[in-house]
Specification:
- The protein is built from 6 helices and 2 strands; from the N terminus they run ααααββαα.
- Strand 1 and strand 2 form a beta hairpin.
- The chain starts with a helix and ends with a helix.
- A two-stranded antiparallel ribbon has the order 1-2.
- By secondary structure, it is mainly α.
- Helix 1 packs parallel to helix 6, helix 2 packs antiparallel against helix 6 and helix 4 packs across helix 6.
- It has one domain.
- It is 69% helix and 3% strand.
């Protein structure tokens, strides 16, 4: 788990659904960075991306409304975010599509910012 997200998460009780979201978004971030920087998607990357993408396609919609106000405050490539950054990254149908996808890389900070704001807001409610 991202260190800052872990720091924010420590004040929440048992929220298994949120933990799964964090886990999958962390994995997505790590994979996008690895594939982009490495300039290649290995068979293991393809398999991992397939699993992450499938999970997020199925279960992220339940989080979209809660994440929306946070990503709308984020910046992508120096400009205000105009679309859900999670969905933008998931536009890649395969890990190999991320090799030269600078725009996906630029959306990662907005994903992290929205996630951290969500965790912080939830921790302040408890």
């Amino acid at each position: 788990m991202n260190q800052f997200t872990r720091f924010l998460r420590q004040w929440l009780g048992d929220e298994e659904d949120l933990d799964l979201l964090i886990q999958h978004l962390d994995a997505l971030e790590a994979l996008v960075i690895r594939v982009y920087k490495g300039g290649i998607a290995t068979p293991a990357d393809e398999a991992e991306y397939g699993k992450i993408r499938l999970w997020l396609q199925e279960l992220y919609p339940a989080w979209q409304d809660e994440m929306r106000p946070y990503w709308q405050q984020a910046v992508v490539g120096g400009r205000p975010a105009t679309e859900d950054p999670v969905l933008r990254v998931l536009q890649a149908t395969a890990a190999a599509d991320l090799v030269d996808d600078w725009e996906a890389m630029q959306n990662l900070p907005a994903v992290r910012e929205a996630l951290n704001r969500l965790v912080l807001t939830r921790s302040q409610k408890e």
